[in-house]
């Protein structure tokens, strides 16, 4: 799969990533990283884009139904949850394994960005 991100990403609608002046916007480094990881896994053929997109739309809808405030919204948190669900459903990364890795990354010193 060699689809370029602009050809698979929604421009508008529930799954469309945040944009400013037509360019994608990432509020923190982890957001661009999870975006890149997702695109790389898709390009490696580990999942079809529509599989991920459906889960992302489901996660956004579920968040909206929970009645959160505006300031609590994070598109890439929903993206992360959708990716975690997809990886677990495909048996690519178990929840326990993923949580262990998250714990390891959280223990890195402040300012560590590799």
Chain-wise SSE layout:
Elements lengths: L4 H4 L10 E2 L2 E2 L4 H15 L5 H17 L9 H15 L5 H12 L8
Antiparallel strand pairs: 1-2
For the biggest β-sheet, the strand order reads 1-2
Question: Which of globular, elongated, flat, extended, rod-shaped describes the shape?
Answer: globular
Q: How far apart, in Å, are the first and last alpha carbons?
A: 27 Å
Structural class: mainly alpha
User: Sheet bearing the most strands, described?
Assistant: 2 strands, antiparallel
Mean pLDDT: 82
Number of helix segments?
5
- Listing every helix as H and every strand as E from the N terminus to the C terminus, the arrangement reads HEEHHHH
The amount of helix comes to 55-70%
- The tally of strands reads 2
Radius of gyration: 15 Å
Which stretches are poorly predicted, pLDDT < 50 over at least 5 residues?
Answer: none
Report on this model:
It is a single chain. This protein has 114 residues and is mostly helical. Helices cover 55% and strands 4% of the residues. It is built from five helices and two strands; from the N terminus they run H-E-E-H-H-H-H. Strands 1-2 form a two-stranded antiparallel sheet. Helix 3 packs across helix 4. The longest helix has 17 residues. The chain is globular, with a radius of gyration of 15 Å. The two termini are 27 Å apart. The mean pLDDT is 82.
